[in-house]
Amino acid sequence: MVTVKIPFLDLLKVADSGQAFRIKVIDDSHVELVAYGRYLQIAKTAKDTFAFSCTEKEFEDIWKPYLDLGRDYGKIVRSIDKNDEYLIAAAKFGEGIRILKQDIFETTISYIISQRRSIPSITTSVERVSKLCGRKIKAPKLESPFVAPLEKEYYAFPTPEELNSLPFADLENTGVGYRAPYIARATEEFCSGKLDPNALSALSDDALYKALTAMYGVGTKVANCVMLFAFARTGRFPVDVWIQRIEDRYYNGHFDCTPYPDTAGIMQQFMFYYERRKPQL
Question: Which residues constitute the domain of residue 128?
């Protein structure tokens, strides 16, 4: 177990932010997730204090970058234009949301699945894919301050090789619909090395965007989501129906990202969460 002081972290908001599809809320102070082939439970034990069900090395190597703990989110919020009342309100409402740095292959496939779908339906398909060909993870026995996991067993998201071995008909039966050929092609390209996570990570933003949008079935929104949530390119600003609605209603059709060259994606998450969850008048 590792216990850490972390300012600007709200587990429930992160779980509900729509970035990742394998985070589940257990109760008001516990969440669990499967990522990077591991099960993790996080417990809030006091104000800004969290316990992680992992070793110190695993925390440093995986979960610290996963939760973007090297970034000062308070400073980012203070950088918001004082005249932008909507964004100020969104950042206040979304305090505690951090950008998750997720596995590149899993995020790419998950966001291909996400096209024109609700978060619950995306989650269902991602779980089905994982159960069909991902590695089984037995639920750990945890002691206080943790609680019992929600399930007896979990499944890692499949590797490219594991997913590539899944018959196409089985992939279609996970509910991914017309996206099945896009998933199959992307998986083949990761297996062949045409898409190499290390090589992609070394690209500039423009070159990475070009490489992602060259993929079969990947458009602007999916590419920007993958850049933001898998490659930590926090200057990207994905536009979906929620963000377009915000832009139309509050920004005359376009949100100017110029003042936020390195943090526009963080602002996007505040806006996305706020618009979906703010109290309705």
Answer: 103-140+150-214
